Amino acid sequence: MTTTHARQSEVSLPTACDLFRVDDLLNDDERLIRDTVRSMVRERVLPVIGDHFEAGTFPRELVAEVAKLGLLGMHLVGYGCAGATAIAYGVACEELEAGDSGLRSFVSVQGSLAMFPILAYGSEEQKQRFLPEMAAGSMIGCFGLTEPDAGSDPGSMTTVAKRHGDGWMLNGNKMWITNGSLADVAVVWAATDEGVRGFLVERGTPGFTTTDVHRKLSLRASVTSGLHFDSVVLPEAALLPGVTGLRGPLSCLNEARYGIAWGAMGAARACFEAAVEYSKTRRVFDGPIARFQLTQAKLASMATSLVQGRLVAHRLGTLKDAGQLHPVQVSLAKRANVRAAIEVAREARTILGANGITLEYPVIRHMNNLESVLTYEGTEEVHTLILGKAITGEDAFS
């Protein structure tokens, strides 16, 4: 026992942001992706993101940066995509959201919600036409599922597609669509006589218009839009042939939720780092506030949440890479990690005091953004009921 105790006492304490050495679980390629994306975020994102958040503008100049790093559809295989592991993709999401949730949302929508359904359910012609350009960032996509009156209940969608000659006619509206007015192609889900089907609707198609959501106080450095379809005539070639029913859009959401579980920990880490640094430099009563018990209690709680969330995310990635991931596990991780990140952000805000509400620090920006992350890709309540059904066998949705 004495020898063991001696060995333990010789182990150096890891960094405050990684007290359980979660990063040691990464392989060399995953560490390289982490370091590369982290450097890009520090050098290109952080100097400008506060201004974009304040102005309510998306930093479109960063699209080329993330595309150059191979981050668009990086977890997909073929057609110009990197074919990275699920853990590598998760690490990238964590680093991107440490910059801003809006940037991670852009990458998630492009890869998991727009490119993934084309790869999974599209024809070979659709894959060849769209995926290489989307991976290169020269074509932007969006995902049209949510409607003004059909959010958590996509089965109640009123957007419809009817057979029209040799093709289809699409009518309806979608709402809260990330990248909507930026998109060159929208993956749109509509009710048909055959069940829910997916369609690729290109910018400039007659009858297809977009309107942006303004006056947002969250995800301000992100484009959020409504999509409007007024007797939009589509050829048969616009239909995603490989899936019918809600299984199609729900599988896409599952891909996006996976990235959120990782990304939320990036936002939490950024808030924690800001709080730690501030606590060491802000002096009150002849000393730094870091010496006070209440401050240390807050930091200890934040550090614990960060460890727990990052371990959950890594385990989620391990299961996904092994082909053993179940949607219920994604729901648990998304629900738990976003809620934990919100609490970390709020605690960090209190440590920063009045400075915590300014854009001179990242905390209030992350705190506001996370309120949207809590809601999109399945609200906290929806994921709670998904877990409840898995635990009890009783369906609270019906």
Can you walk me through this structure?
The protein has 398 residues and is α+β, with helices and mostly antiparallel strands. The protein has 3 domains: 123 residues, Butyryl-Coa Dehydrogenase, subunit A, domain 1 (Orthogonal Bundle), CATH 1.10.540.10; 105 residues, Butyryl-CoA Dehydrogenase, subunit A, domain 2 (Beta Barrel), CATH 2.40.110; 145 residues, Up-down Bundle (Butyryl-CoA Dehydrogenase, subunit A, domain 3), CATH 1.20.140.10. Helices cover 52% and strands 15% of the residues. It is built from 11 helices and 11 strands. The strands form 4 sheets. It has a 4-stranded antiparallel sheet, covered by helices on one side. It has a 3-stranded mixed sheet with strand order 3-6-7, with helices on one face. Helix 2 packs parallel to helix 4, helix 5 packs antiparallel against helix 7 and helix 7 packs antiparallel against helix 10. The model has no long low-confidence stretch (mean pLDDT 95).
